[in-house]
Amino acid sequence: PPNRKSLYPVLQGNEAAASAGSGRWFLWQVTWDLMLREPVFGCGPEQMVFYLEEMTSVPYNWPHNEYLQYAAMLGIPAGLMYLAAIITLAFTQMRHIKRLSETTLVAGCMAFGYAVSAFFGGTTYVTAPYIFMALGMTSLRKYRECDEGSIHEES
Predict the structure, then answer these.
(1) What's the distance, CA 152 to chain centroid?
(2) Is 68 within 8 Å of 31 (Cβ atoms)?
(3) What is the spatial distance between Cα 30 and Cα 124, in angstroms, rounded to a whole number?
(4) Could you give the CA distance from residue 45 to residue 27 in angstroms, rounded to a whole number?
(5) pLDDT by residue (tens digit) across 38-89?
(6) In sequence order, what DSSP letters do the residues of 6-26 get, joined into one string?
(7) What is the dihedral of CA 23, 29, 30, 35, to 10 degrees?
(8) What global pTM score does this model have?
(9) CB–CB of 63/122 below 8 Å?
(10) Taken in order 97, 100, 101, 106, is the CA torsion positive or negative?
(11) Are 31 and 58 spatial neighbours (Cβ–Cβ below 8 Å)?
């Protein structure tokens, strides 16, 4: 399979690993190094391009991984809090999945799809508002109508 060519160098840790995943592995490694260089507060919002140019002499401005990007820009604690908020919301909603309204389910699916794609992509000013709206709509926890005919909500 074609993925073998990209995966084996990464697992073996050899020089060819830098080109794995369309070059993403190299970007992830450089971003990881930047994250460790500025672990508490990060390099600052939208400042990655300057650090990455300095570290690699190649003009990269984002790592194609939103979670690494947030941790490198805002610090490891902020990156972990962002990830924890998404995971907590997902597990909380999964407990009530049979009772959630259709709107909440659709918003949750949108947020889940984005969360998965964010591992291989990155946030932009164009897409970020949509994920935050989907997360907000998911967190409303609107429930379907109950037997008594009333709609129950939790906050």
Answers:
(1) 31
(2) yes
(3) 20
(4) 18
(5) 899 998 888 887 877 777 766 666 788 889 989 999 999 999 999 998 888 8
(6) HHHHHHHT-GGGGGTTTTHHH
(7) 140
(8) 0.72
(9) yes
(10) negative
(11) no
